[in-house]
Write a structure and sequence with these properties.
201 residues; Arc Repressor Mutant, subunit A; alpha/beta; 9 helices; 3-stranded antiparallel β-sheet
């Protein structure tokens, strides 16, 4: 059996994509939150890889057609091409291999209604803050339990210093890292400092 041109290109892409552990670490970041773009220092902080290794892997993933880049001021941002023929399978593999909390992060990241997600690993609880109190359309793997709050409920609980938030703002981590959302200014104004979770840029 021979490969036609597009099949051969996909096979070459797959070879480039999966050939190193550094590449897998970079790929994992993009696959868990595929709608987000990152600059090199963010990738360095999230993966713990040296900058040189990150640059090499970004070049290789870019040459495979999986990432595209754009310049914005002094920074170059990288984002996964959601239309790449291997994207659905690669994302599926990353989610399948992910720990339960990373699986939740990966699913929450693509739900447009989700504004923030907090993980309290000790209590095995996840809090998702949504634009409305709509329950996200995904299940939560054991051992975690999922709690949902609308943005209004969350902001009211912040102002009231509700005990319902104590476990999440005192002993949890930020699962998404979307600190440009105004909700984070309100969290900081209320005197809370929540660290980003491991692997979150």
């Amino acid at each position: 059996m021979t490969l036609n041109g597009s099949q051969k290109a996909i096979e070459e892409s797959l070879t480039r994509i999966l050939a190193s552990s550094a590449r897998v670490a970079v790929l994992r970041l993009f696959m868990l939150d595929p709608r987000r773009s990152y600059y090199q220092r963010q990738i360095e902080g999230a993966t713990g890889l040296p900058l040189r290794a990150i640059q090499r892997e970004l070049d290789r993933l870019g040459s495979a057609g999986l990432l595209y880049r754009r310049a914005e001021g002094n920074r170059t941002y990288y984002q996964v091409d959601l239309q790449h023929p291997l994207f659905p399978e690669l994302r599926g593999m990353v989610l399948k291999a992910a720990a339960a909390h990373d699986y939740i992060r990966g699913i929450a990241a693509v739900d447009e209604d989700v504004r923030a997600a907090f993980l309290n690993a000790t209590a095995q609880r996840v809090l998702i803050v949504t634009h409305a109190a709509r329950r996200p359309s995904f299940g939560v793997p054991a051992p975690y339990t999922l709690e949902i709050m609308s943005s209004e409920e969350f902001e009211r609980a912040l102002v009231e210093r509700s005990a319902a938030l104590a476990d999440f703002l005192g002993g949890s981590v930020d699962m998404l890292g979307r600190r440009d959302d105004v909700i984070w200014r309100r969290i900081e104004a209320a005197g809370h400092a929540v660290d980003k979770g491991k692997g979150v840029a």
